[in-house]
Design a protein that fits this description.
heterodimer, A: about 140 residues, alpha/beta, Nonspecific Lipid-transfer Protein, Chain A, 5-stranded mixed sheet, two-stranded parallel ribbon, 6 helices, 7 strands, about 35% helix, globular, B: about 375 residues, Rossmann fold, Dehydroquinate synthase-like, alpha domain, 2 domains, 6-stranded parallel sheet, two-stranded antiparallel sheet, binds fe (ii) ion
Chain lengths: ~140, ~375
């Protein structure tokens, strides 16, 4: 079954993926990770309205996810990874490395850099895990 | 989209240091270590700077791999003396420490571990940086990377920012003439590790590849000669240039798994970088060669160093054998136990080493992805 990106069903499936066998690279790297993320998908010519996912992570487990449409109130979160819809598609299809995304300014990362720099692989695998979701694009 | 970055000026070859004769400025912080001071190597630089009426303050406390505490101390001294040039004279530790001092001197409110690529990092408002490497290894004189130890956790942090590339790199072989054989050998293998990783990493690219390849060819040809005949300026120059070229190569691609495992084991088991990388490199190469694409790339390297083979896999394996042979012939240690590490010590530290290694920036784009089990297996093999 494939899920539309972005949608509530998609982020639920992403959560299942993180917690499954497929999520093992992330689970191993994020063993001591404590901190929640927002994935912000900015609108562009291919997506009319922005979308935000909330992802709560704790010691290699994804405990909770949530999905917000543009205009809805989004919870506070420790980290935010933000890029346009087109760039998110590139990450999900494996075309763009999520770290290269930051280095080429296609994505921005907000939050404690000191914490991320001690968990670079965990951060990368977190975003890369989106590749494991069976995604249907708008 | 990607970038190619290097120092604005790389002055290399015999007498490159004379470049300093025309340097303008008022106050220099010279960062070095006390061993070099005793060998009177930084004094060559100090004399040239003082001839230009520059005030020189010496910070010679980089006697181990750099720590955040060390950088804080250096930055304080820089502030007290209102310096406008930081001149690093030393190996990778000294240059990385100088970069860290620079960050804190220009941004007293900042924490080093907050440096993040593409975030603002104001530099050059107070001072500029000159790197004068005295070992042929690190390549830090030519790139944006800093490896620094967090004294609180013992983790080696790799940070990087494009603004951290030194303004000027002076690659003068005279500074390496008296390096002891084992230092020449271990730092030379670090050059090989940088260039082999840069050439095979997922971020390899058309601009970094030629630098990597040239450095690899030079190491195989000249490292044994430079170790054997240390006073030969030609051999020293070849290796010195190769180190900077390999530094450019990794600076524009990335380090890989050999460095991830070496940073981690080096920090936890207290083994210096050149020595530990010589242990890790062949094991990581044997791990990576299982990927068909890596075998192909290794065979390209094998071709360039004139090994004969009939299939890419054969060429790749010959390259690994050749690398091992080089390390062995240079007299470097090839097992963790050679450093006095015991099985018990390895087992006690295994979890910490795996944790550090997996989240090292060298693990991000290794040509073959690895799991914690793979890392454990590799460390056990290295024992
Ligand atoms: Fe290295």
């Amino acid at each position: 079954m494939s899920y539309k990106f972005p949608s509530k069903e998609w982020i639920e499936s992403y959560k299942d993926t993180l917690n499954s066998e497929k999520g093992k690279p992330w689970q191993e790297a994020a063993k001591t990770w404590e901190g929640d993320f927002l994935f912000v998908i900015e609108p562009d010519e291919r997506l009319e309205k922005g979308h935000t996912f909330y992802i709560d992570l704790w010691h290699g487990e994804c405990r909770k996810v949530d999905s917000f449409e543009e205009g809805e109130k989004v919870p506070e979160s420790e980290f935010e990874y933000k890029g346009t819809y087109s760039n998110w598609l590139k990450v999900i299809s494996g075309e763009l490395d999520p770290i290269k995304g930051i280095l080429t300014r296609k994505f921005t990362l907000k939050g404690s850099k000191a914490k991320v720099m001690r968990a670079t692989k965990a951060a990368k695998e977190l975003v890369n895990s989106a590749q494991n979701v069976d995604t249907e694009f708008f | 989209m990607w970038y190619f970055r290097s120092p604005k000026n790389i002055v290399f070859g015999e007498d490159a240091i004379s470049y300093l004769e025309d340097l303008e400025g008022k106050s220099v912080l010279l960062v070095t270590d006390s061993i070099l001071m005793n060998l009177e190597i930084p004094q060559i630089v100090i004399k040239l700077l003082q001839k230009n009426n520059m005030n020189v303050t010496i910070f010679d406390e980089v006697n181990s791999e750099p720590t955040i505490n060390m950088a804080e101390k250096g930055a304080k001294i820089a502030s007290e003396n209102e310096i406008d040039w930081i001149v690093a004279v030393g190996g990778g530790s000294v240059i990385d420490c100088a970069k860290s001092i620079w960050i804190l001197y220009e941004n007293p409110e900042m924490r080093i571990d907050e440096v993040f690529p593409e975030d603002p990092l104001p530099l050059r408002n107070k001072a500029r940086l000159i790197a004068i490497p005295t070992t042929s290894g690190t390549g830090s004189d030519a790139n944006w990377a800093v490896v620094i130890t967090d004294t609180q956790t013992g983790q080696k942090l790799s940070i990087g920012h494009k603004n951290l590339i030194p303004d000027i790199s002076i690659v003068d072989p005279q500074f390496t003439l008296n390096l002891p054989k084992h230092v020449t050998a271990s730092t030379g293998i670090d050059v090989l590790a940088h260039s082999i990783e840069a050439y095979t990493i997922q971020w390899r690219n058309d601009f970094s590849n030629p630098f990597a390849l040239q450095a690899i060819k030079t190491v195989f040809k000249y490292l044994p000669k430079a170790v054997e005949e240390g006073q030969n300026l030609k051999y020293r120059e070849e290796m010195h240039n190769a180190a900077t070229m390999a530094g450019i190569a990794i600076g524009n691609s990335q380090i890989g798994g050999a460095h991830a495992l070496a940073h981690s084991a080096g920090a936890v088991l207290n083994i210096n970088h050149g020595n530990i990388i010589a242990v890790v490199l062949p094991y990581m190469m044997r791990f990576c060669v299982e990927e068909e694409e890596v075998a192909r790339l290794y065979s390209e390297i094998a071709y360039h160093i004139h090994l004969s083979f009939s299939t890419p896999k054969e060429g790749a394996l010959k390259l690994i054998d050749k690398t091992e042979e080089l390390i062995r012939n240079l007299g470097l240690k090839m097992k963790l136990s050679d450093f006095g590490v015991t099985k018990k010590q390895l087992e006690e530290n295994m979890e910490k080493m795996c944790d550090f290694a997996i989240n090292d920036t060298g693990s991000l784009v290794n040509p073959r992805d690895f799991t914690e089990d793979d890392i454990k297996k590799l460390y056990n093999e290295m024992f």
